[in-house]
Design a protein that fits this description.
The structure holds two protein chains of two kinds. Chain A contains twelve helices and 13 strands. Chain A is α+β, with helices and mostly antiparallel strands. The N and C termini of chain A lie far apart (103 Å). By secondary structure, chain B is of the alpha/beta class. Chain B has one domain: Rossmann fold (3-Layer(aba) Sandwich). Chain B is globular, with a radius of gyration of 18 Å. Classes of the chains: A alpha+beta, B alpha/beta. At the A-B interface, helix 2, strand 1 and helix 3 of A face helix 2, helix 4 and helix 6 of B.
Chain lengths: 443, 274
């Protein structure tokens, strides 16, 4: 049984008999009804009393009235009742709304600055594209709470490659959210599962309802990473429920993507410099520095194994005649041809390096004496194959020196330099003995 | 999704995280009770004990609610119902549960449905109390609310938090009639993060589980109340149509919290179905 005073009847603006005998909830707006049922009543049940809860009354003329409600459970009567006190809170609610709007705006801009700052720091220290992608993904997660975030960068061929090593959950096939954002260079959004399904109706391996369901993605945002007007990557945020991001959040994602561009250019430049420092400019093969590091790594590995290491020193026979006849450009072509031949006869995992001039070094790890003889013979045979083009008819062959080292001989004093020196001496022995042969030295 | 195997530190971490408690006989059939938005496992205090004589009864708090581990709240994980469904499955694995009768109120009903779709072999039946797969009306679908109503709810949550901080704590402290509520309740409400409450409200009231419903293969009972303004009866009828072989029981005038308003009737309804 509900009873009310005249003030409340005036407040709600309906006849007294439509109030008396009805629950308070019936007078609330639908939004306040939800709040009343899911927050107000549970709290009242637990605490028996609550004060100054803000609710909105629905008035007959479609307008609403903001009120504060105090409520207390009165257990003193035979039938327990609830006593409500309702205050008109229009003025205070408006004030608090403004306060709230100001607080929200301040929190949002503080969050935005914090995320951008953290990302800037992360981008600055990223050494690899994988680091960069992880930093960008982390920032996007903080900005959106997206359960699934994937970053793609396009490679020189224009294909999208995931920035992280693990398999991406949001895939990037033809006509997928990622490729659409890449091609348009404009942020794309799909705010619910039906929109996603309609946009990508393909089944099977293509991004669409099937794979989206497996990834529990019901809405998605794809932000292109734009470098000088061209999209060179995509940031994808997938959500497990229908979601429409605020324009300010999308702007934040776009700012993050934009900030990552400078860092990526720096990383690429650094990778280029590092590559150049460790590779031969003519053939693209690893250079002496790279090979020495590789050898040192192998020799300092403290794995208790007896794997043998072999080093093949290769010096071309007849190369001076090539240079004399064809000039350096022609000579360079022959060196490139020989590089390819050497690379094709060694095993996967062996390292072919160019020391300079017509000298090459090959490191073979975990190899037996029989195998190394086999490799050396294949190598000689391949270099001896007739040359084509301008160099046709000019005989080129290989003098090879092999230094062979097994760790089980309990010698720790062997360095990369020693192995190179022994192989070099063995190569000279091959030269002295008449060229186009190999000499084997057990170190 | 990480599946935690029975026993060990990982299992115990799950049980702490979700404030799991177990009543009754662990050799008897298992019932798991899930609470709704804005509440905690305490909401089942009048119903769950009625099953402890002939069931193993498992109660838990969702992460971010009740006395769960607030530090375990991960805004990305809990941005959708799937994060909560994963937790339910982890609890089942941590306790090595099977043939589970899952009783879910309000948003827990849909969390249970998603968990049962992911690992149907764990569940014997689903009892959905005051469920809704989508609160917002959509074309011909009647959920009972417009998007603006949910926005108003989210505003109310924020607006009322301003009041809570200053006025709620003395209220808890001064409650002489319910001393058992005192210390820990003050604690848990004071700790309740408004951002968590707001995100859980968004996930609860803005999710749309309708497309998943045809994948429910577990026998399902839907319990709806005639005067439930959160989940109207028409939503219960929609669910009965969408979940093959499900049953709908409509209780007269018990509101959204039938487990508090009429625990005896709800228990009888559940027993009749089991």
């Amino acid at each position: 049984m509900t009873t009310v005073n005249d003030t409340f009847v005036q407040m709600v603006g309906v006849p007294r008999d439509e109030v008396v005998g009805h629950y308070l909830i019936e007078r609330l707006t639908r939004g306040s009804k939800l709040f009343y049922e899911t927050r107000f009543m549970p709290l009242l049940r637990d605490q028996r009393r609550i004060n100054e809860i803000a609710l909105d009354l629905q008035l007959p003329d479609e307008s609403t009235l903001s009120v504060f409600v105090n409520a207390a459970v009165d257990d003193s009567a035979v039938v327990p009742s609830i006593r409500f006190a309702v205050f008109d809170a229009t003025v205070r609610r408006n004030y608090e709304r403004e306060l709230l709007a100001a607080r929200r705006a301040a929190e949002l801009s503080e969050k935005r600055v914090r995320i951008l700052q953290a990302a800037t720091t992360g981008f600055g220290t990223a050494d690899t594209e994988a680091d960069l992608g992880a930093t960008l993904a982390e920032a996007a997660r903080a900005a959106t709470d997206a359960p699934q975030v994937t970053v793609y960068f396009s490679n020189p061929d224009g294909d999208l490659v995931p920035a992280s090593a693990e398999a991406p959950i949001i895939t990037a096939e033809q006509n997928s959210p990622a490729t659409l954002a890449l091609q348009s260079a404009v942020t794309q959004t799909w705010s619910d599962a039906a929109t996603l399904a309609a946009a990508f109706p393909q089944a099977g391996g293509v991004f669409g309802p099937v794979s989206a369901r497996r990834a529990r993605i019901e809405s998605l945002v794809a932000v292109p990473i734009v470098e000088a007007g061209v999209a060179t990557g995509v940031l994808l945020c997938g959500f497990g429920r229908p979601r429409t991001l605020e324009p300010s959040t999308i702007e934040l994602l776009e700012s993050l993507a934009e900030q990552s561009v400078g860092a990526r250019q720096r990383i690429r430049l650094r990778e280029q410099i590092v590559f150049q420092a460790l590779h031969d400019a003519l053939t693209g093969l690893p250079n002496r520095l790279y090979l020495q590091r590789r050898l040192d790594d192998l020799l300092t590995q403290n794995a208790p194994d007896d794997r043998a290491i072999a080093l093949l020193f290769v010096d071309l026979d007849g190369f001076k005649a090539v240079n004399d006849k064809l000039g350096h450009q022609g000579g360079d072509l022959v060196l490139c041809e020989v590089s390819e031949r050497l690379t094709s006869v060694v095993r996967a995992g062996d390292t072919v390096a160019r020391l300079g001039g017509d000298e090459f070094l090959i490191v073979c790890e975990n190899v037996s004496e029989d195998q190394i003889v086999d490799i050396a013979e294949r190598l000689r045979a391949s270099v001896r194959q007739p040359l084509e083009g301008e160099a046709a008819g000019l005989p080129v062959s290989a003098s090879v020196g092999v230094s062979f080292y097994s760790a089980d001989e309990s010698r720790n004093d062997v360095t990369g330099e020693t192995l190179i020196r022994f192989a070099d001496e063995a190569m000279y022995e091959s030269k002295r003995a008449g060229k186009d042969r190999f000499t084997f030295v057990q170190v | 999704m990480t599946i935690t195997m029975p026993g060990g530190a990982a299992a115990s971490a799950v049980l702490t995280r979700n404030n799991v408690s177990v009543l009754g006989d662990d050799t008897a059939p298992t019932m798991v009770f899930g609470h709704g938005y804005g509440t905690s496992k305490q909401m089942w205090r009048l119903v769950a004990p009625q099953f402890a004589d002939d069931h193993q009864v498992v109660l838990f708090d969702h992460v971010g609610s009740g006395d769960s581990d607030q530090a375990a709240y991960d805004a990305s994980k809990y941005d959708s119902l799937y994060g909560y469904a994963d937790d339910l499955l982890e609890i089942a694995h941590a306790l090595d549960l099977h043939d589970i009768v899952f009783v879910g109120h309000s948003v827990s009903a849909m969390i249970g449905a998603l968990a049962a779709i992911a690992e149907p072999e764990l569940f014997a039946s689903l009892i959905l109390v005051g469920p809704s797969p989508r609160y917002i009306n959509d074309a011909d679908y009647v959920g009972g609310f417009e998007a603006a109503d949910v926005d108003a709810l989210l505003d109310s949550l924020d607006a009322n938090y301003l009041g809570w901080a200053s006025t709620m704590a003395p209220v808890f402290m001064g409650n002489a009639e319910r001393p058992e509520l005192a210390a820990e309740l003050v604690d848990s409400f004071a700790k309740a993060d408004p951002a968590v409450a707001s995100q859980f409200a968004r996930v609860t009231f803005l999710s749309d589980v309708r497309a998943e419903l045809p994948n429910v293969t577990t026998p399902t009972l839907i319990v709806q109340s005639t005067d439930d303004i959160v989940a109207p009866v028409i939503v219960g009828e929609y669910l009965r149509g969408a979940i093959a072989g499900s049953e709908l029981v409509v209780l007269e005038a018990d509101g959204h919290y039938v487990h508090l308003a009429n625990p005896g009737k709800l228990s009888d309804t559940i027993r009749a179905f089991l």
